[in-house]
Amino acid sequence: MKGFSKEEKSWIFYDWANSAYSIIITTAVLPLFYKAAATNAGVSAANSTAYLGYTIAIATFILAMISPILGTIADYQGYKKKFFTFFFILGVSATGLLAFIPSDQWLLLLMCYTIATVGSAGANVFYDAFLVDVSDEKRMNRVSAFGFGLGYIGSTIPFIISIAIIILSQIELLPFSTTIASKIAFLITALWWLLFTIPLLKNVHQFHYIEREAILVVNSFKRLGKTIIEIKKYRPLFLFLLAYFFYIDGVGTIISMSTAYGTDLGIGSTDLLIILFVTQVVAAPFAILYGRLAEKFTEKNMLYVGIIIYIIVCIYAYFLETTIDFWILAMLVASSQGGIQALSRSYYAKLVPKKNANEFFGFYNIFGKFASIMGPLLVGFTAQMTGNSKMGVFSLVILFIVGIMALLFVPKPNEISLKEVAEVGKGL
């Protein structure tokens, strides 16, 4: 962590805190816990995967609808931290509550997961927007990439503890069931998330903002309407959001549904947990590497690399047969998932007017979240129609192809004149 300021370190540590939620709740333990509960209730594998996809779609739709206006309000002095704190507390509370839901109530489990997802993703909107407050443009790629890298490393600690508890309960070396062990993992996640968010709450503050106005909410809606009109005129920003809409859809869907997909292929829960752990370990240095390579080859070229790897992932997923195949697939994902997310965040941060960062990150979020509705729905619908989860994952390849085609037309940040940025900021 040498070379980073106190504010940058505190910001980076939120990735360390929140990534435990991403792997334990979004990717690993909760999907396995849910799949087992749904199977015991007589729900077929294809249908339970589809219901999980629909749940993710509902949660992201809720957030997508409220993000722009919340982001617009948060641009006013003093509001960014308040909104971040609200969603952070919502997410931590719902995550902890998962531990107290009866294991046979799979529908109630999905409802609580929806609330936790809204809290986690909602906090990330304002966390991402804080990047412009803690770092300058020359350092954004490295800070953003280091955040993802540290997040992967940090998430492995509670993940290892959770895996150990679950496996030890399976072989009866602990005096409680696997169900109880999974619930302990939910509590560990909530506590980890809570503890390591303290540095951000203490040290990160809103530096770029708009002065408060008398009729704040009304003026926020007016600014939002104006932004919707102006964003179409700001071609680089609009084109990037369009590209991001498609390729991040595939990335998010693969991350959130990989465990359910592995279960449908017949891969055991222990193997899945070990694979996911190794994926986190491998992803950490690759995320940091992407940030370093972006300084040499540009963010845009490294985004191309990441998207192409994901296209290969979608094609390869269709031909999966063995656990070894799933290992290969997981390592391909590990090589690019952190890098593509980190560089997307820093690329976008360089394009937006700084004082309107929350408002524009609200749009960044709405594009990403509406995309995240489409991906799980596509997987769920295709899996149900064909009765084959492989077809659902394969269908995602078109999203990456459209994304990379749109990205071709986005200029690099250094090719955009300062006058363009100033004019957009002035118009808002």
TrEMBL record:
It is a multi-pass membrane protein. Coiled coil: none annotated. It is found in: Cell membrane. Pfam families: ATG22. It comes from the Bacteria. Keywords: Membrane, Transmembrane, Transmembrane helix, Transport. Residues 236-428 form the Major facilitator superfamily (MFS) profile domain. Gene3D superfamilies: MFS general substrate transporter like domains. The chain crosses the membrane at residues 12-34, 54-76, 83-101, 107-131, 143-168, 180-201, 237-260, 272-290, 302-320, 326-348, 360-379, 391-410. This is UMF1 family MFS transporter. It comes from Aeribacillus alveayuensis. The lineage of its organism: Bacteria, Bacillati, Bacillota, Bacilli, Bacillales.
